[in-house]
Amino acid sequence: MKRVLILGGYELGNLGDDALALSTAIYCLKSGIECTFESKQSAYVPTMIFRELNFMPHDTTADYEAIIYGGGTLFYSYSNAQSQSKIIRFSKKVYSVIKKPKVLYDFFYSMLKIRKASKTSDIIMLGMGFGPFHGNKLQLSRVRDIASNTKIIGVRDVKSLDCLDEINVSNTFLMHDLCLTREFSDYLKTNGNKPPVNTSDLSKTYLTVIPRDWNRTENGKLLSFKLKRYCGKVLEDGKGINFQFYSLIEDQEWKSFAEGLQSRYPDLVNITTWNPRLESMRDFICQLEDTEFVISMRFHGAIFSMLLQAPCFIVPIDQKLTQLSARYGLREWNDQIFSLCKYSLTLDTETALNENSDLLIKIFEKIS
């Protein structure tokens, strides 16, 4: 049986990255592949996966044939924040354990094991995002370095593919986000502890907003301001809003705004926040079935909406979201859209699921 080690941005309390970890684990489980995760002592991912799947990832001491970087944006840079990347997430991990020397030692020891193993194991990236870079040579150098040690790089959008082409990285191909798999879709469609959804629009919240604090670009800040103003108008019309936050730590500006609205409209405003240690991921994501429309500032908010066939408008604050609009036909929200309406995606979600399934089968067959 093949064994793989799964790396990624998980265990930082972000729903999108945690979902990528779970989706990869589900695929491995259904495909007869043993998997494990790089984790520190305080890890919640193995427990989360066991809670969701009744399956415990194997110990990191096991040998493995491949290292899988499972989705997410690996390297990027904005003009006013030239070092934005996974290195920030790495720093957060170090900060979280700095007061516990044994945990800190275990964390760095696990990283050393990964580097040692990478000399003999295949390194494969799946569903990755790259860029934008705005001329940041340090980040481009990092991309070249990691690409030279990687057997296969599957990217989730054309912009990422173009970025790698520009620096002469050739071992690349276009796929879909790793949450767009048949296995993860089936997982969401099983009810879990959630009661059956009432499909009547009269029983649903009018709007779910998936916010994100975004100060990296002027356009992003402006769109965030306009969306807040729009939320106020929706509530003035007597329609309900559910604010769904994907991180316990991030988005404090939006959380403060939502709490202010909730104090003014207690019967119309609901606030939910992802807590990976307490909640079922399936139940949290499937709240989107209980809303008429979704407006998402987060990439995976749009992906989950696609999987659940929830009408979704994306707020084009960065290239990840604009690529979703270009590739799948998701409508871009702007402050001129006063009345939301249902629409059809240009690329059927089923097509994306089938294409990803075919690609993943071929990729895992290549693991020695």
Q: What's the topology here?
A:
Blueprint: E1 3-7, H1 15-30, E2 34-37, H2 45-53, E3 66-75, H3 86-97, H4 101-117, E4 122-130, H5 137-148, E5 152-155, H6 158-166, E6 172-174, H7 182-189, E7 205-210, H8 218-236, E8 241-245, H9 252-264, E9 269-273, H10 281-285, E10 291-296, H11 299-308, E11 312-314, H12 319-328, E12 331-332, H13 349-365
Parallel strand pairs: 1-2, 1-3, 3-4, 4-5, 5-6, 7-8, 7-10, 8-9, 10-11, 11-12
CATH topology of the largest domain: Rossmann fold
What is the gyration radius calculated from CA atoms? 20 Å
Q: Whole-number average pLDDT? A: 83
Global morphology: globular
Task: Give the % helix.
Answer: 40-55%
CATH class category label of the largest domain: Alpha Beta
- SSE series: EHEHEHHEHEHEHEHEHEHEHEHEH
CATH architecture of the largest domain: 3-Layer(aba) Sandwich
| Distance linking N and C termini | 11 Å
Q: Number of DSSP helices? A: 13
Q: What structural class do the secondary elements suggest?
A: alpha/beta
Number of domains: 2
Instruction: Specify the biggest β-sheet.
Output: 6 strands, parallel
Low-pLDDT regions: 80-88, 90-109
Number of strands: 12
Strand content: 15-25%
Q: Taking strands numbered 1, 2, ... along the chain, how are they ordered across the largest sheet?
A: 2-1-3-4-5-6
Structure description:
The chain has helices spanning 15-30, 45-53, 86-97, 101-117, 137-148, 158-166, 182-189, 218-236, 252-264, 281-285, 299-308, 319-328, 349-365, and strands at 3-7, 34-37, 66-75, 122-130, 152-155, 172-174, 205-210, 241-245, 269-273, 291-296, 312-314, 331-332. It has 368 residues and is of the alpha/beta class. It folds into two domains: 3-185 and 352-365, 3-Layer(aba) Sandwich (Rossmann fold), CATH 3.40.50; 194-337, Glycogen Phosphorylase B (Rossmann fold, 3-Layer(aba) Sandwich). The strands form two sheets. A six-stranded parallel sheet has the order 2-1-3-4-5-6, sandwiched between helices. Mean pLDDT is 83; it is low at 80-88 and 90-109.
